[in-house]
């Protein structure tokens, strides 16, 4: 899992609008520091043996570095994201890139945060709804990508995307912040039969769960020593990186990569 990733770059990353509670147009990222952060993330993927594809960002799309919201992909099919109006201009670039690479591209009929709200866990798709994803997307995702969709709701806009509240470590292990999910979702998650790792509110707020795991190496924010220790205890290699500039846009490591793993997990 997460062996092939689509990234963009941070060349045009700015806080031009406020569409999540972390964004403040009065607090702009430092351009050089952001480029360095993003380069370090890409270098970590390459060092972990992951394939990294690249789509250049464009000046009119200041959030394009967060490629995770552009779509969710499984085995040659991609369901495009349908983001808030401020980010709509990004989608055609991804649509074209995916189509040119031979993906069958499906448009989302309702609001949809792409992989930000759709985390693959084996044949399950942990799917956030109620913030940036319309509940009506759940059956669409199940049908188009042949996943068993597991609906999860975060409590408020601090967790505007599920990838801030939940992190998939491998097909049998999921990390999550109990304070970020509603009671029904906690019951759902605890009933899945996967091993769960609890992450504190404090570390989750520092984007600890916005991680990328390939089942061997976990690339994550360095500001979360307790989760890092829990993962190391399980035999995983943990690479901690600084994400203070990307955090000004309300994003972290997971947000900057769209997973492309082409192999279907299940026969269609
Ligand atoms: N500023 C971006 C937005 O609000 C951040 C997106 C982060 N992506 C994610 N998958 N959580 O849309």
TrEMBL record:
GO terms of molecular function: amino acid binding; dimethylargininase activity
Pfam family, one: DDAH_eukar
Top-level lineage group: Bacteria
InterPro entries in alphabetical order: DDAH-like
Transmembrane segments: none
Swiss-Prot/TrEMBL keywords: Hydrolase
GO biological processes: arginine metabolic process; citrulline metabolic process; positive regulation of nitric oxide biosynthetic process
PANTHER family per the UniProt record, alphabetical: DIMETHYLARGININASE, DIMETHYLARGININE DIMETHYLAMINOHYDROLASE
Similarity section: Belongs to the DDAH family.
Name this protein carries in UniProt: Amidinotransferase
């Amino acid at each position: 899992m997460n062996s092939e990733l689509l990234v963009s770059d941070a060349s045009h990353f700015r806080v031009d609008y406020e569409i999540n509670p972390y964004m403040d147009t009065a607090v702009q990222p430092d351009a050089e520091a952001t480029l360095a952060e993003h380069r370090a993330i890409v270098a970590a993927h390459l060092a972990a043996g992951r394939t990294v594809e690249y789509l250049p960002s464009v000046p009119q799309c200041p959030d394009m570095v967060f490629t995770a919201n552009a779509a969710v992909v499984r085995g040659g099919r991609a369901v495009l994201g349908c983001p808030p109006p401020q980010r709509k201009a990004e989608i055609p670039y991804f649509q074209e890139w995916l189509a040119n690479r031979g993906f069958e591209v499906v448009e989302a009929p309702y609001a949809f945060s792409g992989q930000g709200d759709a985390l693959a866990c084996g044949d399950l798709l942990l799917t956030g709804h109620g913030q940036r994803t319309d509940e009506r997307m759940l059956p669409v995702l199940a049908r188009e990508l042949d996943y068993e969709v597991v609906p999860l709701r975060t409590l408020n806009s601090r967790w505007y995307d599920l990838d801030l509240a939940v992190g998939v470590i491998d097909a049998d292990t999921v990390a999550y912040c109990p304070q970020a999910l509603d009671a029904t979702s906690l019951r759902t998650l605890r009933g899945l039969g996967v091993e769960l790792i609890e992450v504190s509110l404090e570390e989750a707020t520092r984007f600890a769960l916005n991680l990328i795991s390939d089942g061997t190496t976990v690339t994550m924010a360095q500001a979360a020593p307790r989760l890092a220790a829990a993962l190391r205890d399980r035999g995983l290699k943990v690479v901690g990186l600084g994400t203070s500039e990307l955090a000004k846009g309300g994003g972290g490591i997971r947000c900057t990569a769209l997973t492309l793993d082409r192999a279907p997990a299940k026969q269609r």
